[in-house]
Structures are given as structure tokens and as C-alpha cells.
Amino acid sequence: MDLQSLSNLFATTLNPNPNVHKAAELEIRKVSGHEGMLVALLQIIASDNVDLATRQACSVYLKNCVGSLYFIDPARAHPDQRPIAPSDRAALKSSILRLLADSPSRSITVQLASTLKSLVSHDFPGKWPELMGGAQQMLGRSGECNSLATRLMSAYRRPHSFCQKEDILPQIVAELFPILVNIASQLLSSPPAGAEQEIPAILHLILKTYKSSIVLNLSQHQQSPESLVPWGRLLFQVVNLQIPKEAVPEDEDERERSEWWKAKKWAYGILGRLFHRFGNPSQLPSTMKAEYGAFAQHFVTTFAPEIFKVYLQQVELYVSGQAWLSKKCQYQIFTFFTECVKPKTTWALLKPHFETLVSTFVFPNLSFTTSKQELWDTDPVDFVRTSIDEYENYSSPVSAATAFLLQLVGSRTKTTFMPILSFVNTVLASNPAAPQRFGALNMTAALGPFIMRHPDVKHNMPQFMSQHVLSEFSSEEGYLRAIACEVLGTVERADITWNNEENMNAHFRAVAAALDDPQLPVRVQAALALTEMVSAHEPVRAVVAPQVGKLTIALDLLKLSDETDLDILNNSMESMVEQFQDELLPVAAQLTARLCDSYLRLARESLAQEENAPKGGDLDSLIQADGDDDKTYAAMGVAKTISTIVSSVDSSPEILVQVQEVVIPIITFTLENKMLDLFDNMYELVDNLTFKTHEISPKMWPIFELTYALFKSDAVDFLDEMLPSLDNFVSYGTEVFKNRADYRHMVLDIYTTSITNSHLGENDRVNGSKLAESLLLNLRGHIDDALQLIIKTAVDHIDGAETSSLRLANLEVLVNTVLYNPAAALQLMEQYRAGMSRQFFDKWFAAINSDNHLPRVHDKKLTIVALCAAMEMDPAAIPEALKDGWPGIVAGALRVFKDLPKAIAGRKALQDALQEEAEDYASDDDSRYLNLNEDDEDVWDEDSAYIEMLAKEGLRLREQSEKRTEDDAESEESDDTDIDEELGYISPLDTVDPYFTFQQALTTLQAKNGPMYQAATTSLDVEQQTLLMEVMRIAETQQGGENGTAQA
After folding, report:
1. Could you tell me which of 615, 827, 830, 922 has the fewest CB atoms within 10 Å of its CB?
2. What is the arithmetic mean of pLDDT over 480-505?
3. What fold is seen in the domain 1-160?
4. Residue 261: closest CA among 340, 186, 207
């Protein structure tokens, strides 16, 4: 087809008549895939004689074609897919840079840049080594730098996604970045005439490209003065740039989004990243010191002081009203100042200025601003959501200012704490305007945990509350009433000790009254504060209890939650449920019904948002649409509260059944609508309900059927979430399973699918093996027809497991088959593969005789009772391959008995340790907040230690991965200690006494197979004979169902 005809076809696809453009699309489909098609498209896109709309249509088709056909995954290939011809590939790579440079419109540029990304990701560098030379040549041509830089950077801005190996990224950096920094510097020093609109966009993309290159690593070239000096000079030039008012929009929100301020934001971000990750020697993880230690020392002494000086100048200009700073730039400045607190070198620079920065830069950000007032008036729900989540908003100057404040008082307590508190008190004592009073109290709320742990200050807090906070509950300004509630909630959470009961009661009455405040943000903060007071004070609980029993408080919280969809209010509801279990018991079903109504509303709204969301799109658009997840997160919170109610009413089976009837419909709705994000919460509810009731109600069985259908379709990778519920269905629904072959088949199919599905991982296979174990333990005598398939599946994978967890889980499936029916299991192994029973026993006894291959109590008990089952076999049923080693079964059981008491003691120690850890966490060590032993040296705190731990763990995992690749056998041994006790796992074997079981089995062996008994017992050495006598003695003492200290 000639160019003109092809161009006309693409023009016709824009025809408003659907029949016409559909016909054109069909014609294009006929010629697509033919060699030369893409060459023709490239010529049309490059032709100035073709209208822009047609050229854009061709560029879109080109992007889609390259994205789907340049590389075709053989595992997902379709018969009608034809790969792009080699001649078209060559034409693409030879033309794409020139097309980008000459692109006539942004819309075409976007499509071509996406095409280039696809080419780069698949062919560079191995199949496209000339790309670098072509890019260098074109970037170096005068007159083309501006246009090509703008277009090329979007394609080069993803180097870290494909260049972490083979030193590709350092090559790109060393060859292209000197050209980029030169382009940017020339644009600022000698801007070309008529390029005013293009300059900030080019700067923005060049700086964004540099930032992308230093996310993980800093190349040797970038560490060298040859790179650091020119880039540093450029970054300082951009930061110091005074942008003329006429060059940016007047509206501040639009100004924030302008290209000039985007460029400045990236300049700040680069300087911060260089210091935070690579240039701060006191906080540099030990794993990075060899590569970056020298650079960090140079940076912190030479470069960081210049950054601090420039940033301080920018702050001074901003606070004096001489210059404007965008919010994101303020955020970056605060973040850098925060990083300067712990290193002694930068602390020496910051120390003389911290009080000024707090009073002139931090305090205004924490005060009540006109933008906050506007949001309060126009959208109080969004105000609440924003204010509560603001500390976690990673672009908000308020969050960064707060983090800076907390870093000052936490790391440099002796120097900063009292001056900052003095500033707060001075502000409040001067009776300032309401916005400034809000700022001082906002600082108090932020510092509350620190104040309540400082030995010289915490006892003064009740007086501070009565003097400065209590009166604000009756303020005319709603935001002051709200911050008063927040301060109260903060000090209560930090365990304030009231100087007298009347002071506490006065604050309680004030916050209780605030629950009826006309302003929504006040009611929300009052609810949070009241929750803290209820948790902390018995007198408050006694007063609130009657209202809880009438559902008054709970319904108020529900109403607030429905108005705001805030997860934090669900936390308050959970706390109320935990505090008032007895009072809520009679109305638990009613409260649960209301919560289920809220959940369904949120779930439906989330579904509606998902249906209305634009399909496809790039990553940026998906991130911007992330706000739609609010409904989902709120629904998660409601589900968690329902789960808390289920846990709180387990003492009353009748109430629990009523609650279950109310909850089942929301579980069904969620699963039927495949709301995958909520599956974890729903299966937690199913697990709780089935476990607490110890039975499966008739209405719960459809959920089992739905779970199986989901596993076989959309939720195949949710077995981890499903497993506890599936185990409960098997454990507590055994009578139904005995009578329903289809249900048994479903569980068996889940097991085999989890083992054989190539898309699932080893953790899924472990979970599947646990489910098979549940079948074998709970349905003994009722799954004879499934035994062959279970054995075949496990045998096929007995040598294929990469992790010790899966090796053990798969082995124990076979061990369970021996326990289920030893004669049938061993016979089926031999039928499937000759000698298989011996191979299985060899692996089993290798685990028995090792020190840690049966690490858990359950592993040891299972092995003992399975060996006991084998001991009781009819001698004629023992496979020929096992007869010579059969006497060793007794010694094997004794070997496990030897380690059993130690395993039980270890599990008990783990339980105690977890309990102690929970108590320690609740006590909240003061050293986490304050550094009272401070000097002016480097500070190494919990955060520093955490980063160090992450770095070491990352290094360990990388080395382990490399080691596994190099030597699978060695790796197999290295991870055998990774299996920990599963304290929440409940098994039918928990009630089995292994000592008494062994005694009975040994007696049976003696009666059925005297010669084998004789061989087994006479072959024991002295230590084994002594152990045998001890096991028999313990068995004697535990007969009659008594549980001794040795039983798990």
C-alpha cells in the first residue's frame, strides 16, 4: 500500500461516523504486520505535508504496535501475533531520535517517547549499541539541544529500571550527563532568543533525569569533581534563581505546578538525595562505606555547608517576604535541615540558627493559615482527612516542619528542648491572635510524647492544660476547639498524671461536650480524645459505660465515621469495643449490623469508583487516582472493627451466632464482587467466626464454595489469606466433608493446584501442603480415594523444593499419609515408583537424625505418631525395600523423643518472649524519644540502627540469592534454620499424647512381630535404652488422659 493510501486510511479513522472509521480500522488491521508497514508510518509522521491529527494517529498506532509486537513473550503469544520484521526494527532505531527532535507537537512527542522507551528497554545496549553515539551526536548539535533534550529526557528517565546490571547506567551517566549539564548551564547563562517557554521544561526534565539516576547508586563519575562541581553549580544556580513574577502564574497553586518551580523542586530534591543517601558519613550504613565513605566525608565537609548556606538564605528571603517558596521546595528544605541534626559537622552549622528557624519557619507552617481556614469552611471532611494524615503527606511542608521539630528535640534534647518549650509558652502567654494560638498548641500536640517523658517537664503538664488548653474548648474559633481536643488526646495517650481529679473531670466534661460541637473537625478530635481518656482512666470508663450500653457513644462514632470515612475513627470504635465488652454484649448484633451497613456502603462506593475510573493510563495517572482507595481503606477499618466485636463476644455462643448471621452477607458480597483488596479482611472474619463457634453453619458453606471458585479463577494467589479459613472448614466441618465428595474434591484440587501451578510460589506450595495435612488428619478413613493423588503430587516434588520450609511441608504430607494408613501409603508409593518407599524413608530419617530438620513441636509429634502407626503395621504389609531397616523405627522415634522436651521448652520461651515484647512495647521506652545524654557529637539512634539493619539485611539477601544461584546444595543447607514455631497453629495432634501412643505402639509391635521387636530393642545402645525407659515411665504417669509437663 502506497504512503498516500495509508495516510488516507489513518485520516479516515478520525471520521465521526462510526461505520466509516470502523471500516478504516479493519483495513489497517489487514495490512498490519506486513514488512514495511512501520517504515511507511515513520515517513508519514515525519512529513510536514500531512495534517497533525493524522500524524498523531500514526504515532499512537506506532507506539501500540511497538509495545505489543516488538517483543512477544513465548509463554503468552497469540497465533495472530506477528513480530515486527527486522527491516522495520532497523528503520525504527535509525529514525526515532530524529523524529523526536523534529516532533511538531507535544501529543506526538509523548507517543514517540513511549516508543523509544520500549526500544530502549528491549534492545539497549546489547542490540542497539549505537544509540549512545547517536544521542550524543544529536545533543551536541547547536540549535537542536533545546528541542531534543526536552523530548529525549522522558525516554532516558527510566535508566534505573533496566540498567542496574552490567554497568549500563554508569556508562549512560559518564557519556550523556556532561552534555546535559552543559545544555542546562547554557540555557541559564545565555538563553536562546524565543526559547523562554521551553527553557524551564528542559531544565525540569534534565534535573528529573539526574535525580532518577541517583535513586539507588551514585556512579564513580558522579562522585568525581568533574561531575559534582558542574552539577552542583547548576543546582545552586537553579535554587538561587529569582523567577520574575510575569514568568509564572499569579495563582499560587498554578505557580506551584509551573515548569520553573518544578525545576526548582527537582534541584532541591537532588541536593537532598545526595546528602541523605550518599553524603552523610555518620548515618551511612556500614555496607555502603567502602563505596561511598570517602565521597561522604568530602561531601559533608565541603558541599553540605554550601547547601546549608544557600538554603538558609532562601528561608530568610521567604520569611522576610522578599521571595516566594513553593510548598514542595519548603518540604525539601525542611527535610535537609532535619538530616543536618544528627551529624556533628552539620549540627555545628545548624545549632546557632535552630531557634530562629523554629520561630520564623516552623511556627508559621504549624499555625492556622488562610488556606486551612478556606478548607475548614468549604470542605470540613477534607480538612479532617488532611489534618490527620498531614504528617504522612510526603510533600507537605507541615509534615516536614513537624519532622524537623521532632528531630531537634529527640536528637539534641539538652540543647533544643527547653528553648522550644519556652518559645511555645511565650507565644501563649502573649495572648496572640487565634491562628498563632493554634500554632503554639499544634506544636504542643506534636511535642506531647516528648513533653510527657521529660523528667523536668512532665509534672507541669496538668497545670499547662488547665491554663492554656481548657479555656480553648469554649473558644469561638472551631479550629481552637479542635486543637484543644487534639492536645488532650496526645497527653492522655502519653500517660499524663493529673494533679487532681477535678482537673481531669473538667477536661472530660469539656471533651464530652465537644462530641456535640456543630463543627465536624471538632467532633472528630473530641471522639479521638475521649477514646484515650476512656482507655486511661477508670472513673471516665464508669461514667461512659452506661452510654455505651445504650449504643449512644458507638452510634456517634459510627455517624462520624460515615461522614468522614476515616480509618482512625474505626480504631476508636475498636478501642471502645475492647474497653466495654460486657456493656456491648447485649447489643453486639445490633452494633455489628450498623457496621455492616457502613461496610457495604463503602464497598459499593469503592466498586463504583473502580468502574468509573479511566482504564489503562500511565503510572502517574494511576498514582493520582490513588485517592479512590480511601473508601477501600475505610472499609478495611470497618471490617477490622467487626472482627474485634467477634473476638469480644466469644464468651456468649448465642450472641456470636447472631453476629455471624449479620456478617455473612458482607463476606459474600465482597467475594462475589471480587474485591481483592478486601479479601484479607474477609477471610480474617471467616477464620474468626468459624474458629470461635467451632462449627460451620449452613450459611457459611456457600462461602467455602465461593472460595474454591475464586481460587480457581481470580484469587489463585490468595491461598495465604484463605488457608486459616479452609483449615477451619475441614477441621470443624468434618461431618459435612465425610458426606460431600465434591467438597473433598475441592480441597484436594486446591492442594494439587498449589503444588503444580507454575504461577504460584513456594509459600503457596507450603500452604497447599498444610491443607493436605489438614485433610489427612481430620478425615482419617474418609479420603482413601484421594490418597493416591496426594502421594503422587508430593512424590513428584520431593526433590524440587528450593526452601527448607517447602522441603519439610512436602515431606510431612507423605508422613501424614503414613499416619493416615501406613500400609496403603507405602504400597501406593511402591506402585507409583519402585523403591519410592525406601527413598521416602531415607529422606524422613535424614530429617529425624539431623539437629534442625524437624524444628517445631508439631513436626516432632507428627513424626512420632506416624512412626508409631508404622510400628503397628501387619508384618506382611511392610514393603520389601524397607524390611532390612524396619527395626530402626524404634531408634528413630527415640531420637525425636530426645529433642521433644527441648522443643516444647523453646516454644514456651518464645511465647513468653512475645508476651514480654508486647509489654515492653506498651511501656514505651523514654529513650526512644529523648537524648538526655547529648553532646555535640554524631547521633546514632533507633532510626539510624534501623537503616543499618535494612542495609545489612539487603546485603545478606543479595549474597544469599547469588549463593543459591552458584550452589543450590549449599543454599539448601543455609536456610534450614528459618522455620520458626507457629504459635497460632492448632492441630488434631495437639490432644495426642506421644508418650502413651508410643507405649501402645511398642506393645503392638511386640505382639504382632516379635522378631522385629527383638531386633529393634536389642540394637539400641545404652543411651537409647535409658531414653526408652524414661519414655515408658512418662507414658505410665500420663495414662488415663492426664497431661504431664512433657506434653505439648
Report:
1. 615
2. 95
3. Leucine-rich Repeat Variant (1.25.10)
4. 207
